[in-house]
Amino acid sequence: MNNNFISHFSIIEDPRSSNKQHQLMDILFLSMCAVLSGAEGWEDIEDFGHAKIDWLKQYLPFNKGIPRHDTIARVLCRIEPASIQTCFINWVKDIALQCDADVIAIDGKTARRSFTTKDRKNALHMVSAWSCAHGLVLGQRKVDDKSNEITAIPELLDILDIKGCTLTMDAMGCQHAIVEQIQAKGGDYVIALKGNQGTLNEEVKAWFQKAWREKYSGIVHEEYEDTDTGHGRIEVRRCLQVEIDTKWLKEGTKWRSVNSVIQIDSERHVHGKVTTETRYYLSSLSVDAERANRIIRQHWEVESMHWTLDMTFKEDSSRIRRGNAAEVMNALRKVALNVVKNDTTRKASMKRKLKMAALDDNFRAELLLGV
Asked: Which of 288, 285, 223 is CA-nearest to residue 259?
């Protein structure tokens, strides 16, 4: 296993044609080490460099010393995002072994303050693939300014190895082309349905009603119930998974890979107040209600990534927005998140490990360089 940041990211091309006083890898390595140590902006990165210059020189020359914060910003904002994403994907493949039964949650997140100051638009929105088995970001793609997640998801699937895995997505991923792509790559899926799916959503509801009226005669089905408690909350979840004949659907020929539909009824008891919710899903999986319920619950583990990026790395508060800088910094934060998640040498929270990385040169080298 090779988790050396320098060896993986040194292939990134320098966007500068001249005036290269500081080497690109010096700037990238400095920035990565600073982010891993809790740096949030350009000045933080420069300050970290001055404090740790002797340690940094153990691994790279830094012949011209530490670059100024405006130089760091100018260089990083010009790096081609595709190249850093390629390095990210290859690096993740080296640190995480493929897990055949993995559940991969696909979800999007906006860095809220990365918008342009002129019109407060075009904030960075990234669609990420989260491995529930490893607790790692497997890959990501930026959502184009004039597009949405529907176009970004296929691009992300192109670069992922999903054979033997089950992908979960919200209703945005409920598209013919996307489910066909998942199946073609040897994966399965569980995808949420909502009202924006129109006829399909109503047809699935009608299928459940038909199956119930006919007492599931000749229809494979299974039910599973579990109860979750904690923090003064009790939640009862009932999962009903029913085999479906896609010929019954109006566009059944486009949904040939759908084997079952899932209905989740949630009943929450919080401080004496009871709320209920019903959600529907399409799936290529055969009927196994306990497994279906578990997979749907695992999807929400991706929220731990969003929470960590916002609360620990302060991504929502970051005003980095010039050029490609927001996307590059997003990638560096996820590298930091992954290396800390992948670390088993110390038992501590993400926030505490970042502080350890800031204070302990050996721990930082261990995380980023495998030293």
From this structure: 285
pLDDT tier at 112 (50, 70, 90 boundaries)? low
Q: Which two tokens stand for residue 68?
A: 């100024």
Whether pLDDT at 121 is above 60: no
Phi, psi of 106 (to 5 degrees): -105, 125
- Helix/strand/coil for 191: strand
DSSP label of 261: E
User: Is the backbone of residue 272 left (phi > 0), alpha (psi -120 to 50) or beta?
Assistant: left
Residue 237 zone, left/alpha/beta (φ > 0; ψ -120 to 50; rest)? beta
First vs last C-alpha separation in the chain: 12
**What is the length of the chain?**
371
Q: What is the rounded distance in angstroms from the CA atom of residue 109 to the CA atom of residue 302?
A: 10
Q: What is the pLDDT of residue 98?
A: 55
Residue 356 host element (H or E): helix 350-359
SS (H, E, C) 132-185: CCCCEEEEEEECCCCCCHHHHHHHHHHHCCCCCCEEEECHHHCCHHHHHHHHHC
Categorize the per-residue pLDDT at 315 as very low, low, confident or very high, splitting at 50, 70 and 90: confident
Position 119 scores a pLDDT of: 47
Contact 339, 19 (CB under 8 A): no
Paired strand residues for 278: 265
Pairing of strands 260-270, 233-243: antiparallel
pTM, whole model, 2 decimals? Answer: 0.87
- pLDDT tens figures, 127-165: 999 999 888 999 988 887 545 778 889 999 998 989 999
Report the alpha-carbon distance of residue 326 to residue 340 in Å, rounded. 21
Instruction: Give CA–CA dist 88/141, Å, rounded.
Output: 11
User: What number is the average pLDDT over the span 35-42?
Assistant: 94
For 139, phi then psi, to 5°, come to 180, 170
Q: Specify burial of residue 221 (Cβ count, 10 A radius: 0-12, 13-18, 19+).
A: middle
Exposed, middle or buried, 23 (CB in 10 Å: 0-12/13-18/19+)?
middle
Q: With cut-offs at 50, 70 and 90, classify the pLDDT of residue 193.
A: very high
